[in-house]
Amino acid sequence: MDNLTDLDKLREFVRASRIKRGWSAQKLADMVSKEAEKRGAIFTTTQQSISRFENGIVKREPSWLQFALFAFDANAVPAPAPPPDFF
Fold it and tell me: What Gene Ontology terms describe what this protein does at the molecular function level (predicted)?
């Protein structure tokens, strides 16, 4: 049985997406600020804010989330190639 809440799933998604790109929490915070600026928003976040969300300390959806999603989308990670004998 899956006992994870939607917010827990979101936390896992953010952490997995960040790690998949090889980003630290500080790098994601920097990318959030960059994506906000590209959209005309003045918005900054910190490594601590990212970490507090990922670790379940923050109990609500963070205000920086939409900009993190833009950052993940702008820096997509290609799927790994299938093994040579796959086909």
Answer: DNA binding
- The answer to whether the Cα torsion of 46, 59, 64, 67 is positive or negative is positive
Contact 56, 8 (CB under 8 A): yes
* Structure-block tokens of residue 62: 């963070």
- Grouping H, G, I as helix, E, B as strand and the rest as coil, residue 79 is coil
| 35 pLDDT above the threshold of 70 | yes
- Domains plus CATH for the chain? 6-74 (1.10.260.40)
The predicted model scores a pTM of 0.84
Q: In whole angstroms, what is the distance from residue 5 CA to residue 19 CA?
A: 21
